[in-house]
Design brief:
Length: 126
């Protein structure tokens, strides 16, 4: 059974940085694209960033480009989201996600992510 566990959230001030970690278990991590999503109070969950199975291709939400960096360590079955220059509007629960059956899915196509972690809260104060 695949499990995704996010850690690293917290309360920070605007302009600070945080690094989120997603640790996966239960299957071959390097065979699947990974993504981060977020959901702010009263809003729908939105895509933030994705990374290809090999780590060479990344894709970002326009509003986080240049501030957030997604990466992965396949040897440690871990994905990361480095968030710099945080803004109050980045406040949300952040989720990591992957595909249950699509091997090395294209991060630019709308392939639904269907395996999710429990989320980690990120709060940015002004």
């Amino acid at each position: 059974q695949v499990q995704l566990v996010e850690t690293g959230g917290g309360l920070v001030q605007a302009g600070d940085s945080l690094r989120l970690t997603c640790t996966a278990s239960g299957r071959t991590f390097s065979s699947y694209a990974m993504a981060w999503f977020r959901q702010a109070p009263g809003k729908e969950r939105e895509f933030v960033a994705a990374i290809s199975c090999g780590g060479s291709i990344t894709h970002y939400l326009e509003s986080v480009k240049g501030r957030f960096t997604i990466s992965r360590d396949n040897a440690k079955s871990t994905a990361f989201l480095q968030m710099n220059s945080l803004k109050p509007e980045d406040t949300a629960v952040y989720y990591c996600a992957t595909h249950s059956t699509v091997i090395c899915g294209n991060v630019y196509t709308n392939i639904p992510y269907d395996l999710w972690g429990q989320g980690t809260q990120v709060t940015v104060s002004s």
